[in-house]
Amino acid sequence: MFKSHKSLASERKKELVFKGVSRSTVRNDLRSFHTLSHFVLSAGPLKSAPALKHSKTAYFEIEILDAQTRKQICIVDKVRQTSTIHDVKQKFHKACPNWYPSRIGLQLECGGPFLKDCITIQSVAASSIITLYFTDLGRQVSWTTVFLAEYTGPLLIYFLFYLRISYIYDIKESARRLRHPVVHLACFCHCIHYIRYILETLLVHKVSAEHTPLKNLIKGCALYWGFTSWIAYYVNHPRYTPPLYGNRQITISAINFLEIMPASQVQIITPSRGCFSWFHVQTTHMRLDHGLVSRS
């Protein structure tokens, strides 16, 4: 009997403990639920995720016709609206390798102006199908090549006359007659003049038109090289006589030459004793051929 009372008492204790634990658990659950509901209400209404907008890319189809025969040469498809005429020329070159991009001239209508490479397709498109007319511009060279050829040639040509080579002057007469100091001064001024032009071409000026027909290179070189040969032949001739007014005329001419040099300066990096140092080179205005050259 005593043992049975003990077992009953222990079972009641266990029930009481279990009931206490369950009540505390329920209270904790209620508190957590109340906290969660309060947090949700304070956060406000839930916002739906914004729908993704799928942008449609517009493509154009470009039909290229011969400007003379009006026959179709090729069709350039899948051209984006942000593409430029330069991009169209690149694709045209892939379809027709005989014409490289600088040789291709594209027009909206026959006889109209050629489209610049920077123009976008969207700016000239009236519909999804664009018709352009092709003109072969012939062999092209860059304007930088033209300027360098025009200015480098006179430097070399003048030195040939200055050295009095046997193919130009008589050797005996050249050895018998010494050069006047003004001949050396003329050579120095001539070299400074064209070296300045070369530095401007490489470092100062930017050319708006990238290419030009090959005939412009031939005409420019013929003018510069021919005029240099004509001057150098007489100045470096063994029978050359100094100016009429002597040193006074030479001094005034040298001062005028130096005053023509403008005040603009170009900074150039050049190696000096194992490190790089800055020095200034006086430059002049290079010719502005139809707005092709501008200062950078």
TrEMBL record:
The keyword Repressor does not apply. Residues 60-136 form the TECR-like N-terminal domain. GO terms for molecular function: oxidoreductase activity. It holds the Pfam family TECR_N. Its main location: endoplasmic reticulum. Keywords: Endoplasmic reticulum, Membrane, Oxidoreductase, Transmembrane, Transmembrane helix. InterPro entries: SRD5A/TECR, TECR-like_N. It is found in: Endoplasmic reticulum; Membrane. GO terms for cellular component: endoplasmic reticulum; membrane. Gene3D superfamilies: Phosphatidylinositol 3-kinase Catalytic Subunit, Chain A, domain 1. GO terms for biological process: very long-chain fatty acid biosynthetic process. The chain crosses the membrane at residues 141-161. It comes from the Eukaryota. Belongs to the steroid 5-alpha reductase family. This is Trans-2,3-enoyl-CoA reductase-like. It comes from Heterocephalus glaber.
